[in-house]
Amino acid sequence: MSFLLYSVPIPLWLLILMIAVMAPTLIKLGKLAYRLKQGEIVREEEGDTVVWKVQNRVRAPKTPRGASDQEQAKEKEREKKAELAQILKILIKEGEKGVLMKTIADRMGISMIHAQHAMQKLMDKNMVEEVTGVSGTKYYLTQAGKEYCRRKAR
What we know:
The strands form two sheets. A three-stranded antiparallel sheet has the order 3-5-4. It is 62% helix and 17% strand. The protein is elongated and about 85 Å long. It has two domains: 2-54, no CATH class; 66-153, Arc Repressor Mutant, subunit A (Orthogonal Bundle), CATH 1.10.10. It has helices spanning 2-7, 12-38, 65-94, 101-108, 112-124, 143-153; strands spanning 41-46, 49-54, 99-100, 128-133, 136-141. The protein starts with a helix and ends with a helix. 9% of the residues are buried. The longest helix has 30 residues, at 65-94. By secondary structure, the chain is an alpha+beta fold. Strand 1 (41-46) and strand 2 (49-54) form a beta hairpin. It contains six helices and five strands.
């Protein structure tokens, strides 16, 4: 190695770069060799081709596609209901002051788009009204919204 360094000047940064580029490949190759040595990978020869089969792999249990979609839909529905309840709680706490959309989104920790979508649902049910003023659009709880919250609180 010393002969090579004295005959051809190789910069140190080039050596470091070469090691950095080769390291991930060598690590993957080492893991593959370890698995081959442990017997997890079996070599089967079929004609002219070599097929490598992996054994002892844990596979996810197969569930019907429709069942998982239904579960995901139910979970999303629960999240939306929780968002609506959280918005109503925020509006009740503020009372007559009204709340800006940005404030609602910040307190809930969600994006403005999600908060606007949930607020639109509440406005469609006449639980919330919006009032546009100098400081922006504020949202107030209507009488129907207050009654709904009282019923749910019991």
